Amino acid sequence: MTEYSRRTVLTGLTGVVGSLAGCGYRPGPGDKKWETADDGGRLVTLVDGTLFEVTFDATRFVDDYPVGAVARYTLADGTRLGRFEFKGVATDWASDGAHLYVGTEASHVVAVAGDGRAWTETVDHPVASVAAADGRVYVGTDGGRIVAFDGESGAERWSKSLPVPTDPSKSDLPTVGAGHGSLAVDWGTSEESQLDVYAPDGSVLWDQPLQRSLNGRPHVRGDTVYARSEFLRAFNRDSGTPRWVNKGTTIPDGPLRFSRDGEIVYIPERHALIAIATADGEELWRFNDERLAAMERGRSEFEIDLGATGAVPAPDGASVFLNTKHHGLFQFGTDGTLRWHEPRLDFSFLYAVTEDIIVHSGTEAIVARYR
């Protein structure tokens, strides 16, 4: 029996793991390890070995103002360590591995460390995007301002104002992406779009016009900057020299993710998960509606909507996980081979992957499952 068919059979056996535990049954991929008693939030991520959950919008009924919240849990069994709220709906987040940074529509930037320590700073407008790298946290605001804070203390290091119209309908808000050695900013007006790249000290390295902006997050990985314009484009991080263009990708339904060795970039789109070689931009493989239809006998690709919402490479670099809106969770090898599929896991929220477990957040709970 294949791993895929094994998971399909187990789908209809509710409670099987518990009933067989005393008989020496070993849990398989997708089986539940633990689940919290709390309602699920909007995303879960790991920061310094602690599991964090961010709730983007949870109105307080006492004074009826929108708030966001961050809760912390142990990774071993899902025990809650603490929770705090902040004023304003959360708009974006970033992590540098040691801290979690959350931007809000109330013009705040909130930093949380693995042990719960936090600082909060205020910017001039609601936060549009957040990125973190090199000990800095970068914020793009609705007013077109870019602000760099010290990641540890929250002290402002530098700021710049972009010439964007104050009317949001006439501009693309600055979307930031950061990596070692640079900050990339995708922004524009109703007439033009542009990619600006800065050094950590705020000095301009280079800029490139974009045919159009999707207001998608640029990515800095190694010595390359990746931007979503009408297609996926790669530039040399230091000089801005174009490296390649992949015209087989369109509008993303989730952020770009990179394999551990940096040789593959995974792109989730509505109807496909696409794997592209970072060296030359060539497509390696894709899992799309057609491949899914072949798994579901009696249905054509025109009756299938994969609904890819996010991809997360495994820490060991040997596979990638794909979550979807309607067809559950998939695991693929780096060559595109399907490892296993758990149809029960329909969720559109991001999740964390460790060496042993997958953690996802739905509408009712945070759940950890065996890999």
Automatic annotation (TrEMBL):
Source organism of the structure: Haloarcula hispanica N601
Cited InterPro entries: PQQ_b-propeller_rpt, PQQ_rpt_dom, Quinoprotein_ADH-like_sf, WD40/YVTN_repeat-like_dom_sf
Residue ranges crossing the lipid bilayer per the database entry: none
Name of the protein in question: Pyrrolo-quinoline quinone repeat domain-containing protein
Record PANTHER family: CELL SURFACE PROTEIN (PTHR34512), OUTER MEMBRANE PROTEIN ASSEMBLY FACTOR BAMB (PTHR34512:SF30)
Domain Pyrrolo-quinoline quinone repeat: 68-162, 197-340
